[in-house]
Amino acid sequence: MRTVEQVLTLMGGASAAAAHCGVGTEAIRKWRQARAIPPRHWPSVLAATGLALDDLPRADADPTTPSVQEPSMTPAPDRQATASAQADRAPPGATACLVLGNGAVFWGYGFGATGKRVGEVCFNTGMTGYQETLTDPSYAGQIITFTFPHIGNVGANVEDVEATTAAALGLVVKADLTEPSNYRATRHLDDWLKSHGMPGISGVDTRALTVMIRDGGPPNGVICHAPDGVFDLPALRAEAAGWPGLEGMDLAKEVSCRQSYSWDESLWAWGQGYGKQTAPKHKVVAVDYGAKRNILRCLADAGCEVVVVPADATAEEILRHGPDGVFLSNGPGDPAATGAYAVPAIRGVLEAGKPVFGICLGHQLLALALGAKTYKLERGHRGANQPVKDLATGRVEITSQNHGFAVDDKSLPEGVTVTHVSLFDGSNEGIACEAKRAFSVQYHPEASPGPSDSHHLFHRFTGMMAAG
């Protein structure tokens, strides 16, 4: 018996199948959700594919569907001795799996690109903005679990990307990808994922996986999409367990630009698209540790001429552009590893007296340059609904975040103050050093995706530059 996905492939895709059967793509989505093709469509499907009746997925054929429930999640190694060999076999119809470093296996249905990817498995609580999330360079080395069950309804387009190449390794979702229903959509998310070589898996109990990550921290994992349903679980388990993890890993160089370039595109406006900064008042050098495009747009929108330089640019190379201020961008990986080359450059900029503004990884690197330390969180902050308190005003802002490391408050030297704290776990979310005219925040004030509560920080930066 074939799976619904295999039948749709033979028919030329969801749109072609809908045309053959005289239905809309919403009906095809229901086929996927039910893992079966209704009997009234069998004649059309058989005519289009040449299959036999016994080949068609039917609701009465096999009630077993892959999910996080047993037998779809196999036991961890310490329980495998008493498990049957059947536990290591894919359930009927499964075309993808997520194998964790602790030996657990989540079965499901593959979409996007075929193949496998290994990295750190995390979760994101955002309800929308999945295309921006998947292209955020800060997600390099990570497989994203979306806690919101319905992903795909916005589709994909050419504007809502934060980098040319998608940074995330793969995605895990509860329900099948929904059909695009947004007026700005130009392609199906599945097609977009294929074009970026990113595999996905649906049918997973993402609540159970999220609890596992919440309680035990982000595990290593391998996401594997194999349309033939054949998986080498021992090899996948070994690969997941053997991945070294993000701690000690410098990923900024992998996602950074290779040479300097200018940026003048400003924020998006309804009915107009992206604008252009034609009369800048300040010149900013942005060090690209994995910069999101919308951060650069926010700088341009605030009146800045922006020159972007690679992550490993020296202080001399940064100052050669004659900036009024220096921006330290977001990015992936362990700040201590990236700091090997970034910290000396940042210290050189601080000694030159230039105002400095850092975000995310840039915040952590600024802290290291000022003499503080960083550490890996037990569980990272990822989503567009993270509450942060500004200690100076008492104001609480809802912020967009994506980080697995944090600044150690206790290690901050004299003259460096804590400005913001997380209301989730009390970890550091911002620092300032008045003597050096430098400040930074752990979260993403550009809000792409997310709320725009913190856009004012870009104007705080331009105010520092205007003060001379």
UniProtKB/TrEMBL annotation:
Q: Which reaction does it catalyse?
A: L-glutamine + H2O = L-glutamate + NH4(+); hydrogencarbonate + L-glutamine + 2 ATP + H2O = carbamoyl phosphate + L-glutamate + 2 ADP + phosphate + 2 H(+)
Per UniProt, the keywords (alphabetical) are: Amino-acid biosynthesis, Arginine biosynthesis, ATP-binding, Glutamine amidotransferase, Ligase, Nucleotide-binding, Pyrimidine biosynthesis
Region of interest (CPSase), ranges? 1-274
- Recall the GO molecular function terms of this protein's record: carbamoyl-phosphate synthase (glutamine-hydrolyzing) activity
What positions does the entry give for L-glutamine binding?
Answer: S138, G331, G333, L361, Q364, N402, G404, F405
Keyword DNA repair tagged: no
The answer on whether this UniProt entry bears the keyword ATP-binding reads: yes
Q: Which Pfam families match?
A: CPSase_sm_chain, GATase
Give the EC number(s) under which this enzyme is classified.
6.3.5.5
Q: Which residues form the active site?
A: C360 (nucleophile), H444, E446
Residue ranges, annotated region (Disordered): 56-88
List the pathway annotation: Pyrimidine metabolism; UMP biosynthesis via de novo pathway; (S)-dihydroorotate from bicarbonate: step 1/3; Amino-acid biosynthesis; L-arginine biosynthesis; carbamoyl phosphate from bicarbonate: step 1/1
Q: Which residues form the Carbamoyl-phosphate synthase small subunit N-terminal domain?
A: 94-224
Please report which protein family the annotation says this sequence is part of.
Belongs to the CarA family.
Function text: Small subunit of the glutamine-dependent carbamoyl phosphate synthetase (CPSase). CPSase catalyzes the formation of carbamoyl phosphate from the ammonia moiety of glutamine, carbonate, and phosphate donated by ATP, constituting the first step of 2 biosynthetic pathways, one leading to arginine and/or urea and the other to pyrimidine nucleotides. The small subunit (glutamine amidotransferase) binds and cleaves glutamine to supply the large subunit with the substrate ammonia.
Subunit details for this protein?
A: Composed of two chains; the small (or glutamine) chain promotes the hydrolysis of glutamine to ammonia, which is used by the large (or ammonia) chain to synthesize carbamoyl phosphate. Tetramer of heterodimers (alpha,beta)4.
Under what name is this protein listed? Carbamoyl phosphate synthase small chain
Which species is this UniProt entry from?
Muricoccus vinaceus
Please spell out the taxonomic lineage of the organism that makes this protein: Bacteria, Pseudomonadati, Pseudomonadota, Alphaproteobacteria, Acetobacterales
